[in-house]
Each structure stands twice: as C-alpha cells, then as structure tokens.
Design brief:
13 helices, seven-stranded mixed β-sheet, 17 strands, about 15% strand, Aspartate Aminotransferase, domain 2, four-stranded mixed β-sheet
C-alpha cells in the first residue's frame, strides 16, 4: 500500500489530498484495497457510481458496447446518444434539446458560452450571472469564477463575465440584486452539495422562478450532484415543481464513464449554430450507452423510488444519533441520498473521525471542514446502513472522548 502512495507522490500532480488507500476493485457498495480489505463506500465515487460497482446491467451494457464502438466522431449520427438525449428531454424539459460534454464542469462552461451568445442576440444590455454563496459549479477556469468557495477559487484569474453573489434563501436580496445589476441569469444548485448539503426550500425556489419570470432572467439549475435520481426525483428541481431554462448534468449521468451535459428549454434550443461549440468526445458511445442504462434502471425498474425509501431509513438512524449526541452533532440534513452531518468540532478532529471510519471500513467525505457528506449508492442495503451506523457511533464516541478529555 505504501509503495503506491509513494509512486503517486512521485508521478502524479499533487492536486488531490489523498489517503494511503489503494483500491483494486469494487462490487456492489463495497470497495476492496490491494491487500483485500473491504470497505463500504458511502460516497459513490464522488456521487458517480449511483448503481454501485460492477452492477450487472452496467457490465452487460459495457460488454455489448465494446463490440460496437467506443467512440464515434461527431460528424456522424450516434443512435444511442440520440436515444439517451430523447429520454432525458422527455423526463425534463419538453421540446428541449441536449448537448453532451465530458464532465459537469464542462456543462457549466457550455452554459456560460450559450447564455453569452443568447445575451448578445437578444438582451445586449444584460450581463452577468447571480450565484449563491458557497455554491459549486466546477473547477475549470470559467466555471471556477462562479464557484463561490474561496478555498477553491482563490489565487486564480477571473473571467470577464460579472458574477453577483447572494445568500441562499434570501429572496429579497436576490430581487434587489436583479434590479440593481440587471443580470442575464441566475445559476443555482437545488441542493448545495460541496457547500454542505443544504436543500433549497420549495418556497425559495418558487420565489426564484417568479423573479426570473418577472424580470426576464434565465434560470439555470446545476444538477451535476443532485440529479440522476439522487433526491427521489430524476432532478432535484422537480421536487419543487419549477421549470428551469437550463439543466446541467454530470457525475452519475455516464454510469461511471466521464459524461456531462446540458438540457435546454425550447427558447434556447437554436441559439448555437453549427460550429459555435463542440468537443471531440461530446457524445461518447460508451458514456451515453451507460447513461441510458442508468436512466432505464432508475425509471423502469423502480430503483429511484426504492433508493428514496432507503434514504429515509438512513436519515432516521442519523437523526436518532443527532438527538442523543446534540452536543457533538449539530444537525443532519438530507435530500434523498444526499446527507450533510454538521459536527461541532475542529476541522482537524472531523478529519480524524473520517480516518477512524476508514480504518473501520467505512468511506465518507468531509466538506467545508466540519461536515460529513454522504452520497451513498442507490443500491445500499439496510444491513450495510446498520453496519455504518454502528461504526459511526463507535468512531464518534472515540473522537468525541478525545475532544472532551
């Protein structure tokens, strides 16, 4: 294990904070390191592996697609990509269209380019985008400008597009910003993910929709983390019955293969002309085939509803822990299979809690320094949840005891 850690330091750029954990394979919700130790992954490979690892339908689709094509140039029609796009549109923005990218951050970049051309064509007096404080929209240079987390965007140059930051749930501040700054769009995550798992209220999202209609502002929902069934609906915004102009997708959208994209409403479908935008791997044959398999499994097999019901079980267990340990666990927030556990401790000790859990075979994420973030695979069982809860209580008691001592 230590050899892999040293080789990683020697040959891989140091852009990630890595643990000394070298993973060899995965099965279901479990990962196995090079020494054969088993771990339950409660983070789904950063929210990507919504069906877990080596799901039979993912394996079968992969084998079938390998014999057909891994990649087709964008000059040709790609039937599987077209079928996937049609199903995404049918499940979201009727009469809309899709552009596939390689990732969620590229989806943001595509959005920025699209609305800038829309602005130039239709609303030349408008410019700039409103975003929420602590939001996350990607790490490439354009997307980075709209990611409102200082630890992420500090020390990097900014784009020329104005950005206006507002507090979440403050509809009055949002309206004042729209009136004074005259932006072209507002971009938001229906559930702030990297920001700590903060679901936006139904009332707030309805207020945002009303302001967008009142002032002719585009509404962009970033569903890279909250989409593909994670909150009990295909997209989190659908829990609130609003209609965005653009939906950004990524992570689970490719079934484990890098894939992102945007779904746009009817008025934006023809803003791009041929040659305005493109990318070599835009409609990956493998990525779209696997994404379609994920979508069919979620909708046709009923997994999305099953996952939501399982999430209620996990939430009940976590809420019980919070009630019994309110001195240490401040709050548990959830939206389907998205959980944020706010810990009343130093960032250093919350990191220790994460490491203790890893040593006990439980993989979780830490965001914003003191928030345990869970994005479990949708196939996680109650038995696996019970095993996690047992270890969480044990590790929490150990770290909390050190703190109190």
């Amino acid at each position: 294990m230590s050899d892999w850690f040293q080789l990683d330091k020697e040959y891989m750029m140091s852009t990630y904070c890595r643990t000394k954990l070298a993973i060899e394979r995965g099965e279901g919700c479990k990962l196995y390191d090079v020494d054969g130790k088993e771990y339950i992954d409660l983070f789904s490979g950063v929210g990507v592996n919504v069906l877990g690892y080596n799901h039979p339908k993912i394996v079968q689709t992969t084998m079938d697609q390998v014999t057909k094509s891994l990649h087709l140039p964008f000059h040709f029609l790609n039937p599987v990509a077209i079928e996937y796009a049609k199903k995404l549109v049918d499940c979201s923005l009727k009469n809309g269209k899709v552009f596939f990218t390689n990732s969620g951050t590229e989806a943001t970049e595509t959005t920025l380019k699209l609305i800038d051309k829309y602005r130039a064509n239709m609303h030349e007096e408008r410019e700039g985008i409103v975003v929420l404080k602590n939001s996350f929209h990607g790490r490439t240079l354009g997307a980075l400008h709209f990611t409102r987390q200082e630890s992420v965007y500090q020390n990097f140059p900014k784009t020329s597009i104005p950005v206006y930051e507002v507090e979440r749930e403050n509809i009055e501040q949002l309206e004042e910003t729209i009136i004074h700054e005259n932006p072209i769009a507002i971009m938001l995550e229906p559930v702030l993910g990297s920001g700590g798992i903060y679901p936006l209220s139904r009332e707030y999202l309805h207020g945002v929709q009303n302001l967008c209609e009142k002032y002719n502002v585009l509404l962009i929902v970033d569903e890279v983390q909250s989409g593909m069934g994670r909150t009990g609906k295909l997209f989190a915004y659908q829990n609130c019955n609003i209609t965005p102009d653009i939906i950004q997708i990524g992570k689970g959208a490719g079934g484990g293969i890098p894939l992102g994209g945007i779904i746009v409403g009817e008025k934006l479908c023809d803003v791009f002309a041929p040659g305005d935008h493109g990318t070599t791997f835009a409609h990956s044959s493998m990525g779209t085939a696997l994404g379609l398999t994920v979508l069919n499994t979620l909708l046709d097999d009923g997994l999305m509803q099953e996952a939501y019901e399982t999430s209620l079980y996990l939430n009940e267990k976590l809420q019980d822990i919070q009630k019994e340990n309110s001195y240490y666990i401040q709050e548990v927030r959830h939206a389907g299979m998205m959980f944020g556990i706010s810990v009343n401790d130093t960032n250093e000790n919350v990191k220790k809690l994460q490491i203790e859990l890893m040593n006990k075979g439980m993989l979780v994420d830490v965001t914003q320094g003191n928030i345990i973030r869970l994005l479990p695979p949708y196939i996680i069982t109650k038995e696996e949840i019970d095993a996690f809860i047992t270890q969480f209580i044990s590790c929490m008691d150990k770290v909390a005891a050190v703190v109190s001592a």
